[in-house]
C-alpha cells in the first residue's frame, strides 16, 4: 500500500535530539543537558495570587480572545521598561509572543523562503535551527570571536543575521561592546534585519550588563524606533517558562508583518498568562526575585567550574562563563567524538548536549554544552565525575 507522505524537512531532524528527549524520562540520570531553571526560584505563592485575581478582576481579558499583538497594558509596560534616553519605544514596537520560541518561528515565517540565507552566530541555538528548518534556509556561519570577523561581509545577501549576544546558548559567551556596535552598524549599512535573541540578558553574575544592540541602534534616531534590530525577550529565565510569555521589540513595519504571521499561528497569546506577566512587572516581582536567582546560579556556576577543573582538565578546554546557564567545553583530542560521548554519558548516568545539534551544518563533534542551573552542587559534582568516566570510555573505544 502506498503510504501517505510527510513534508521533506522532517527527514532532517537529528537522532541526538530524540535520544536527548527520551533521556529526560530517566530518574537515575543527572540531566546537565537542558537549559532548565531550578523550580526553587519560582515565586509560587505570589504567582498563585496573581492568577486568581487576574481571572476575577479581568474575566474578559483572561478568558476571551485578546488582540493578536497582545494586551495593550503589557505592551505599554514593556515599551516603558526597554526605552532609554537613546531609544524611544511605543506600543507599536511591541508584539507579545507565546514564548521566545514563537518569536523565532514567526521571524522564519515573515523572512524566509526556501534557500534564503541566514547569517547565524555559530554554534547556534538549537531551537532556532528547529524553528527555521521547515523553510529549508541556507546558513552562513559567523564566529564572532574570530579577530577577522567582518559583520558587513557576513551580513551581505542574508535575509537576517541571528545572534545571542548575552551568554549565547550554547557557548555561554558574551559578545563584547565593539562587536555589538559593529553588527548594528553593519545591519544599518547593508539593510539587514539583525535578530538579537536575549533570554539570558538578566543573568549577569559578574560585571555590569553591556548595552543591548537594540539600544545602540536607537542612538541618533528621533521618534519611535524604526531601525533594523529585532529584539527577542522572554519571561522564561527571569520568572518561569511555563507562562510561555515572550516579546518582540522591532520597527512598527516588522511588528505588523509578525502580527500577520501570528494570526495564522495562535491568534493570540494566553490572556491569563499576559495578565500574570503584567502584574509581575507592575508589582516589581521580577526585579525583586532577581538577586536571589543570581546568587543561586552564580554559586552553581562556581561549583560546576570547580568540579570540571578537578575532573575534566586533562581532556577538555573551556572558559568560565560570566552569565547565563551553560559551560561550553571543547575536546583537546579531536578523536573524542562528542556524539559518541553522549551515548557513553547516558550509559554512565549523565546527560550533556553534543555540539553537532548546534551546528547549522551538523558537523561539529568536538564540544559539549553543560548546564549548571538545574542541579544542586553535589549533583553537579557527581555528574562531572560520571562524565569524566564516560570520556575515558569513549576514548578507549576510539583506540
Ligand atoms: C537562545 C534562546 N532563544 C530562545 C529561547 C526560547 O525560550 P522560551 O520559548 O522559553 O521563551 C531559549 C530557551 O532556552 C534560548 O536559549
TrEMBL record:
Lineage: superkingdom: Bacteria
Record GO terms (molecular function): pyridoxal phosphate binding; transaminase activity
CDD domains noted in UniProt: AAT_like
Cofactor(s) essential for the protein: pyridoxal 5'-phosphate
GO BP annotations, alphabetical order: alpha-amino acid metabolic process
Location of the Aminotransferase class I/classII large domain: 60-384
Pfam families: Aminotran_1_2 (PF00155)
Keyword terms: Aminotransferase, Pyridoxal phosphate, Transferase
Protein name: 2-aminoadipate aminotransferase
